[in-house]
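Deliverable D2.4 — example input (structure tokens):
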């Protein structure tokens, strides 16, 4: 791999490498989605190729993770073929001091939630810009919705005080379609006082499949930063 020079890329690369180093031979590994986890997947592949790591299988959280795992030679399995996941590595869009997360920047939060919550150990990998005092400070909450329910769910989200926006594709005309064939409404809230409660309220709206608030789920948050020109990884 060529070393990144952009500080954000360098942070993501280092934190991905640190997380990949935590994977042990013989384990079942949840493979998250996003640009940071992509580095972790690449480094896991490198460790497999060098023979340092043996007998692992991955559980992808998205088509992206599946494609990357195949590219880097990580054997894959599915949730119906296993009874546990040892470790999951995944990124986040925001992390608060209690290690609660907003995820779903890649519209993969539904599968990510299944895999990350199922894992015995969930490692979050972020660059320093993702740390916030309070969830919702910057990032909207992604809500995956079945297509026929977009209208009523949008109205329900407005009633809750949110500003909903249907996520549109980039290099694709029209809305983003998730790996499950649904749509994503990004909802900006002025403040999220109680993430635990909001997560449940959102999931209770008919037509909502899953939202991107992850509460009491992360075991370890690894943070990549560049200090004095050097990449460093710390633990929250
Ligand atoms: C995808 C996610 C990603 O993990 C999250 O958006 C972070 O992505 P990146 O590492 O590219 O910043 O939740 O649904």
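Example output (designed residues):
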């Amino acid at each position: 791999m060529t070393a990144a020079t952009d500080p954000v890329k360098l942070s993501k690369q280092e934190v991905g490498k640190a997380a990949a180093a935590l994977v042990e031979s013989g384990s079942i590994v949840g493979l998250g989605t996003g640009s940071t986890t992509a580095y972790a997947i690449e480094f896991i592949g490198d460790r497999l190729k060098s023979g340092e790591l043996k007998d692992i299988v991955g559980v992808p959280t998205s088509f992206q993770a599946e494609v990357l795992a195949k590219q880097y030679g990580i054997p894959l399995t599915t949730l119906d073929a296993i009874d546990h996941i040892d470790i999951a590595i995944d990124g986040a869009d925001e992390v608060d001091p209690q290690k609660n997360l907003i995820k779903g920047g890649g519209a993969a939060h539904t599968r990510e939630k299944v895999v990350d919550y199922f894992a015995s150990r969930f490692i979050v990998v972020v660059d320093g810009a993702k740390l916030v005092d309070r969830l919702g400070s910057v990032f909207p909450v992604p809500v995956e919705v079945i297509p026929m329910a977009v209208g009523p769910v949008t109205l329900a989200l407005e009633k809750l005080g949110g500003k909903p926006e249907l996520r549109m594709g980039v290099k694709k005309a029209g809305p983003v379609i998730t790996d499950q064939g649904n749509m994503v409404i990004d909802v900006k809230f002025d403040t999220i006082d109680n993430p635990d409660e909001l997560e449940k309220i959102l999931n209770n709206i008919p037509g909502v499949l899953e939202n991107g608030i992850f509460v009491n789920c992360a075991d370890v948050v690894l943070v990549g930063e560049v200090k004095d020109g050097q990449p460093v990884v710390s633990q929250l």
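The chain has a mean pLDDT of 96.
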